[in-house]
Amino acid sequence: MPQKPPISHKKNDTFTASFGVFFDKFMELKTKQRIAISAFFFLSGLCFSSWASRIPTIKTSLDINDAELGSLLFVMPISQLIGLPVSGWLGSKFNTRWPLAIGMGIHAISLYVIGLSQSIVMMVGSMFVFAFFMRILNIAMNAQALTLQKTYDKRINGSFHGLWSFGGIAGVGLSTLIISFDVNIQMHLFIVATATLITTGVAFNFLIVDDLSPSGNKLTLSKPDKQILLLGILVLFAAICEGGMFDWSGVYFKEVIKVDVFTAGYLIFMTCMALSRFISDYIINIIGMKSMYLFSALLMAFGMSMAVIFPTFWPAMIGFSLVGIGTSSIFPMTFYLAGTSKKYSPSMALSIVVTYAMIGVLFGPVLIGYIAHAVHLRASFIFLTLAGLTIIPVSRIYFRKYGNER
């Protein structure tokens, strides 16, 4: 039996045609996939900044000094390094959709447990799980992003990392608001975890389903790939700077700048990083990645130096904003270059490069804690300045050997 024709309604034909074209484009499969992947980047940034912005609260509640806090922060990169073989194995055997969703779910639950932790032992356990599954979901969502990038003519990878930073802004903004209303850490992290679980359940349905690479999934330790090695070193020093800002910017503003709203420095850092990431793809297309690495490293070093030399509110705010602009493009560029590897699949290349990043996160915040305890927290930020400057010679070596500036 033939179907009845649709009911006709009188309408403006020009408007209808325009709306139909927009609707069809919006509902294009890769557009839905981009929105879903973007949601996971946002959630990851939200959860991480919610944790990082509460580090001063945790330090006070556990009654620990700078060196002890540095040792406690050591748990997270150790956990992520232990997660290396797991994330590599998952990337070589399965599509990334399920590891991403499960990893995000457990990551959110462990965030809430961090808020409940009243002892060092419980805090160590919850931080370990939080960091372990952060490793799993980060590899999976970046692999999804690189797979989707191949379906676009324009560069979009920077926007994903911009959304991670935007999630970080939302997290630290929420933290600032909650702290000002004297809401406890348990309720704060419960709200974030619940929102993350609900959004994960919705976005999961629109992720890329079949992205397992047929080759390049075997890690060869006897012959390390020189391209991936150099990219790993680049991201290592960037991770030292980012990790230091994530873990210590709140403490710096509380104990050195001496302001009550100690999340201000972290907030300006995350805001400038996020905004810069949304335009980084455009800038790279104009000046190239080689120049972008140089520009980024100089901004990072200058911003750190300003905060150290002038330890008052506005110079520190300007300095931290410059650090945010400088660090914004390093990870997106390096992950993009890792995806061009001819030896490894995107998941495996990312897993290797992120391992170097974890080493940076491992040593950076810990060394800052020990230097701060032995000398002063201001002096420890000089270490971050030197790490930022090291990006310049390493990036020069990479582009001299491999080119690929755009």
Q: Can you put this structure into words, describing what you see?
A:
This protein has helices spanning 13-26, 29-52, 55-62, 66-73, 75-82, 84-93, 97-116, 120-149, 157-180, 185-203, 226-257, 264-287, 289-309, 313-327, 330-338, 346-374, 377-402. It is mainly α. It has one domain: Up-down Bundle (Growth Hormone, Chain: A), CATH 1.20.1250. The radius of gyration is 22 Å and the shape is globular. The termini are far apart. Mean pLDDT is 85; it is low at 1-13 and 15-24.
Please describe the topology of this protein:
Elements: H1 13-26, H2 29-52, H3 55-62, H4 66-73, H5 75-82, H6 84-93, H7 97-116, H8 120-149, H9 157-180, H10 185-203, H11 226-257, H12 264-287, H13 289-309, H14 313-327, H15 330-338, H16 346-374, H17 377-402
Helix pairs in contact: 2-7, 2-8, 2-9, 2-10, 4-16, 5-8, 5-16, 6-8, 6-16, 7-8, 7-10, 8-16, 9-12, 9-15, 11-12, 11-14, 11-15, 11-16, 11-17, 12-13, 12-14, 13-14, 13-17, 16-17
